[in-house]
Amino acid sequence: MSKDAFSSLSLKPELLSNLGSLGYEKMTPIQAQSLPAILAGQDVIAQAKTGSGKTAAFGLGVLQHLNVKRFRVQTLILCPTRELADQVAKEIRKLARAIHNIKVLTLCGGMPFGPQIGSLEHGAHIIVGTPGRVEEHVRKGNLSLDDLNLLVLDEADRMLEMGFQDALDAILDYAPVDRQTLLFSATYPKEIEKIAADVMKKPVVVKVAATH
Ligand code: ADP
Ligand code: MG
Q1: Residues 6+ apart with CB under 8 A from 66
Q2: What's the gap in Å between 72 CA and the centre of ligand 1?
Q3: Cα of 184 from ligand 2 centre, angstroms
Q4: Scanning 62, 63, 167, 178, which has the fewest C-beta atoms within 10 Å of its C-beta?
């Protein structure tokens, strides 16, 4: 078995067989380098260029760790924009196709607030959203993070560029300390190092250099 085969990981069989039907034959370099630590429950900082398959890297970690029978928000994935949040939710639903009854809910700014409260009342396992709107729902008591055990900061560099630091800090105040945190980024500016030091526990750092 080649070391970049998904089957070299201890994924749930239904996740593994679904990857085959999606045509994902082998792991991309960032997946091969980050997934063992992600699946082992470690905090991970992963940097690789756009299009390198970062969503499936954290998405498989999310789905592997999720307890579907427990209908509580266990995972929060934060993205800089609604478009990116929608893309991530779509990819997660695709990866989760073989697992029944997983509820993924998006909570983004620029969308009507009221219907999101209604959706939250129905419940979800996974929330994908933008920091400002997620913070507002948490602050107003519409979304509880008490059962959160996995936090993903996707495109962390862009979230910082867009001024989401305060919203991120506020969300982190509500998140249980005992959790796994994954940070994905296309670049690695100084500010990321600061977030990493503030919110992550002994993170494993994985960087895949751009090849030209
Ligand atoms: P990034 O977040 O790094 O910019 P994405 O997660 O959006 O990249 O992935 C880019 C594309 O690659 C997506 O269309 C995704 O479905 C596809 N992809 C991801 N992992 C694999 C894989 N192991 N094999 C084939 N295609 C993949
Ligand atoms: Mg991405």
Answers
A1: 74, 75, 102, 125, 126
A2: 28
A3: 8
A4: 178
Mean per-residue pLDDT over the chain, rounded: 95
How far apart CA 149 and CA 178 sit, in angstroms, is 7
Mutate to test the pocket of ligand 1, among 4, 22, 24, 183 (most ligand atoms within 8 A of CB): 24
Q: Is residue 162 part of a domain?
A: yes
Which atom of ligand 1 is found nearest the CA of 31? 23
Q: Is the pLDDT of residue 194 over 90?
A: no
**CATH number, position 92:** 3.40.50.300
pLDDT grade, residue 211 (50/70/90)? low
Instruction: Tell me, yes or no, whether 73 lies in a domain.
Output: yes
Q: Is residue 163 part of a domain?
A: yes
Chain-centroid distance of CA 8 in Å reads 22
What does the pLDDT read at residue 1? Answer: 65
Q: Which residues fall within 8 angstroms of residue 187, CB to CB, at 6 or more apart?
A: 47, 157
Number of domains in the chain: 1
Domain containing 144 equals 39-206
pLDDT at residue 197, rounded to an integer? 86
Q: Looking at the domain assignment, is residue 182 inside a domain?
A: yes
